[in-house]
Design goal:
Layout lengths: L4 H11 L1 E4 L1 H19 L5 E6 L3 H7 L8 E8 L11 E4 L9 E9 L3 H12 L4 E11 L11 E7 L3 E2 L15 E3 L5
């Protein structure tokens, strides 16, 4: 009989280290929203959520943005439920035309940066006037190219596997009541 995958998920959650509380995440989102508003609040932007992880940061960020905007999403993944990155898979491209628009790409975490860089390049290829990025968490990843960075980042985290607030562990735990990291050796 194969082990119950929920047993593993429960153990990971129980053994994880909470890096940020909901109050700390809210404060970070408030700071991000203020910076985003100052930068693009007058530009009629398209806010483009990156599914699936970006759904939580996007949903929490939108009510904090007090200016007219349109929302769409893109679904591209290098993980697809795994804990190791693979080839980028495009599942959904935006429905709205990005041509001559300011686009803000919102995602949960910036780690190696390849997925976000590919999405930004895709937006540029769609003739967006300006493409900016916002991530809830910027991981300190050694060797990440410096040009793969976010314009707006709420929190910093070590280079460990994270979950909660949109980030997952094998497609579970996106709904964590904080941002958690797997303990070393987990």
């Amino acid at each position: 009989m194969s082990p119950d995958p929920l047993d593993e998920v429960k153990k990971v959650r129980r053994d994880a280290e909470r890096l940020y509380t909901p109050a700390e995440v809210d404060t970070a989102l408030d700071r991000m929203a203020a910076a985003i508003t100052a930068r693009i609040g007058d530009r009629n932007p398209i806010v483009l959520g990156v599914m699936v992880g970006g759904v939580v940061p996007l949903g929490l960020l939108l009510p904090r943005l007090p200016f007219p905007l349109q929302v769409d999403y893109v679904h591209a993944s290098r993980y697809q439920g795994a804990t190791e990155a693979g080839e980028l898979a495009w599942i959904k491209v935006p429905d709205l035309s990005l041509r001559e628009r300011t686009v803000l790409v919102v995602d949960d975490v910036l780690d190696r940066g390849a997925t976000l860089a590919a999405i930004i390049e895709s937006c540029r290829a769609a003739e967006a006037r300006e493409v900016l990025s916002a991530v809830l968490v910027d991981k300190a990843v050694a060797g990440r190219p410096t040009h793969w960075s976010a314009d707006f980042a709420g929190l910093q985290a070590p280079d460990r596997w994270l979950f909660g607030y949109g980030m997952d562990y094998k497609t579970y735990l996106r709904n964590g009541d904080g941002i958690y990291a797997l303990r070393s050796g987990a």
